[in-house]
Amino acid sequence: MKQPDIVIIGSGIGGATIAAALAPSGADILLLEAGGHIEDRPENRDQRAIFQRGHFRPKEFWYEMNGKPFNPGNYYNVGGNSKFFGAVMVRYRREDFYEMQHLEGISPAWPFAYEELEPWYSRAEQLYQVRGQIGEDPTEPVHSQNYAFPPVPDEPSIALVRERMKQNGLHPYSLPLGIDIERWLAKAKTPWDAHPNSFDGKMDAETIGLALALQHPNVRLQTRSRVTRLQAGADGKRIETVQYRKDGADEVVSPKLVILAAGAVQSAVLLLRSADGKNPKGLANSSDQVGRNFMNHNSSAVIAVSPTYRNDAIYQKTFGFNDYYLTDGEGGPPLGNVQLLGRVSGAILKANMPSVPEWMLNQLSAHAIDFYAMSEDIPHAESRIMVDGERILLQWVRTNWPAHLMLVKKLKQALRAAGFPLVLSRPFDKRTPSHQCGTVRIGNDSAQAPLDIWCRAYDHPNLFVVDASYLPTSAAVNPALTVAAQALRVGDHILQKELA
Length: 500
Ligand SMILES: Cc1cc2nc3c(=O)[nH]c(=O)nc-3n(C[C@H](O)[C@H](O)[C@H](O)COP(=O)(O)OP(=O)(O)OC[C@H]3O[C@@H](n4cnc5c(N)ncnc54)[C@H](O)[C@@H]3O)c2cc1C
Known about the structure:
Helices cover 24% and strands 18% of the residues. By secondary structure, the protein is an alpha+beta fold. The chain has one domain (6-37, 50-497): FAD/NAD(P)-binding domain, CATH 3.50.50. The strands form six sheets. Strands 7-14-15-16-13-19 form a six-stranded antiparallel β-sheet. The protein has a five-stranded parallel β-sheet with strand order 8-2-1-12-20, with helices on one face. The chain has a three-stranded antiparallel β-sheet with strand order 9-10-11. A hairpin with a 4-residue loop joins strand 5 (100-101) and strand 6. The protein binds flavin-adenine dinucleotide. Flavin-adenine dinucleotide binds next to helix 1, strand 9, helix 7 and helix 11. Keywords: FAD, Flavoprotein, Oxidoreductase. One of its GO terms (molecular function) is oxidoreductase activity, acting on CH-OH group of donors. Its cofactor is FAD. This is Choline dehydrogenase. Residues 202-297 form the Glucose-methanol-choline oxidoreductase N-terminal domain.
């Protein structure tokens, strides 16, 4: 069998975007994806199926250090987690690339400045057809290109709250979103956050990056193919083979380049499980950093209720604010970002409050607006993914939690001032590893980081890792655009240095 030039492992934002970047080279590219396609089925828009019955949740367990199992919401399908994402495609702030003192701990500097990634941020925004508006958010970094589409409009009940917040001195901005709202609503009148997309208007890894890559005859996607091991050569350097399991059979390919993009947890797991005599701590791991620095954002759902407010919004998720992002608003430490959640219905609330009748929760929802508060989780060497035989162990050492509590407190005050006397909050925990990152980070020092600034493994010249595991910090914004931008940047680097 003819061997591919490049194997890409995983078709999420990292894998699909770099496939789009490399496809025009004509190189023979094989994408190996553990999952299958999300089909167009009624469950895709059925909130009881999604939230109450966990229809799409993989039946997988990860383990805490004490052996306690939990079921993580980590999705394995073509397009990866982006099939379910809230489609907020936002840049890190310029300051996020520099060392930042937080209430608890220091967020380290990136090995390069914002300006280095900026051109690829612009390309990623154009590629993913992001809708947005520059100039509303005082923390917005410089853009060399405007958004190609105007922002998704606020629904009237949301515009009302945006206006009240403005009047109270906050700076709400339109969330940059990868969603064609007319197409999405044409299928069914639901929000898109956490609802799977089957070519219904969400700009995800499958519908954008992968679709573009697969227009090229030199790119092939092989689904239901879970990579089980990467095998280095006798000297422990070059990756010689990629081993995977398809339909119960073990298969092997031997590409020239291997691009790992299985997600921040599974990429670390694969590297650790591929340990050999020359790489006893796992591949790419002479720094002993693979699996460490796991970050996942400190985040909470915050629901504001008023008997005099009526929320008839369908999707809701159109604005956010960064007034407490760089400081707490009074010269204190950075606290984080606030953005609207997709509209939380009674059916969604019931998943967390099973004993309350759904009609009662629908009444609450009719008078409520729902926010997502997100704070930076700072890298910590003991916050880590480990493997124990077939088991995946997650020891998440949350950092900077008091800053998150301050953010939630500030948000509650802002919402009360905006006319909501009752404000409830609930933190997200390890069962929601949606913003997982950091486990195979980039850095200038091979003793401190597994990857160089082009996401190439210091230990293996033909291995790149381009999913969210490369992120050296989590910042306090959604990760997907920063994963896509770096995948395009690394793709260009490979085109120039490896495939020219
Ligand atoms: C409900 C939800 C809402 C979110 N909302 C947002 C948002 O609004 N904005 C934002 O920026 N981010 C959001 N995120 C996070 C975002 O989806 C992720 O940051 C992004 O998808 C990460 O991309 P990735 O390439 O790192 O990995 P993934 O998307 O996890 O892709 C990894 C792929 O690799 C495959 N894979 C795994 N193991 C193997 C293996 N061994 N062999 C072969 N294939 C394998 C998986 O099946 C998957 O397709 C959200 C996530 C969730 C779950």
